Amino acid sequence: MKNKSLAKAPALERGLMVMEALAEDPYEMGLQELVDALNIPMASLWRIMKVLEARGYVIFDRKRHTYRLGFRFMYMGSIVLGGSHFRSNARVYLRRLSEATGETSELDVRIRDQLVLMDQVTGPNAVYLYSHPGSAMPYFHATAPGKVYLAHMNAEKMRLVLARLGLARLTPKTIQSMEDLEKELERVRASGFAVDVEEMREGVARVAAPVFDGDGRVSACIALACPAFRIREEGREETYGAWVKRIAAEMSLGEGGRL
Fold it and tell me: Can 10-69 and 74-257 be said to share one CATH topology?
């Protein structure tokens, strides 16, 4: 039998084109921008966007009149990663970190403008942290994994991300100025790990280090979460930072660094 062209579904193909366009910088586009970029008739595109919005695949910003990908992708991404070889490999490293420190260890992944907690191992000295796999952290400036990602972005991209997200004040200790944040990111780059102490949630501290893929990009963060009072003990921050860096570096060299 001779090869035949595959049957086509034009509406589905156009919907996928829309989602692929919104997955690229600048991550949000107006209806006319999408028409110009994709050469889809306005009436057809409007119907497609209504379906995608209703099902949670895109979000319409009514003030800016722009579309961006919705949280449905975050949910589906967590399912994919939840059953992936990457996550099963990561759990080995998380267990080692929890055994070494007694604290809760976490695997955090950036999905667009959100940090998603992909996996978690509770250590023997851990306290309840009000977070679980699938939880999202929308503010990069207020948590150690977010600072890791910001520290490894170029300056222009970092400012674009923060222009969208803002510097929300979550606790009295949340960083509130770009000047202070840039100083903090310099410390992250110099030390190789990031710390937040009660910046996102009172009573909670995190220490995080980057996991790199084969191209040297940050593919995930290994983090340690603990009560804030514990990290204030003399030498504890440096000890935890050294452990998180060590485990993240081992994961980067192993198969776990390939997301």
Answer: no
In tens, the pLDDT along 179-209 reads: 999 999 999 999 999 999 999 999 999 999 9
pTM of the predicted protein model: 0.70
CATH number of the domain at 74-257, out of 3.30.450.40, 1.10.10.60, 3.30.420.40, 3.30.70.260? 3.30.450.40
**CA 134 to each of CA 90, 116, 180, 205: distance values in angstroms, whole numbers, following the listed order:** 15, 6, 30, 19
- pLDDT tens digits along 127-164: 666 677 767 777 899 999 999 999 999 888 888 888 87
Give the class (CATH, top level) of 10-69: mainly alpha
Domain boundaries, the chain: 10-69, 74-257
Give the residues of the chain that fall short of pLDDT 50. 1-6, 255-259
CA distances from 90 to 78, 176, 196, 246 (A): 14, 33, 22, 14
Closest Cα to residue 178, out of 136, 218, 140, 228?
A: 140
**Residue 223 phi, psi dihedral angles, 5° rounding:** -135, 155
Q: For residue 108, list its beta bridge partners.
A: 117, 221
Distance CA 144, CA 245 (A): 13
Amino acid letter, residue 127: V
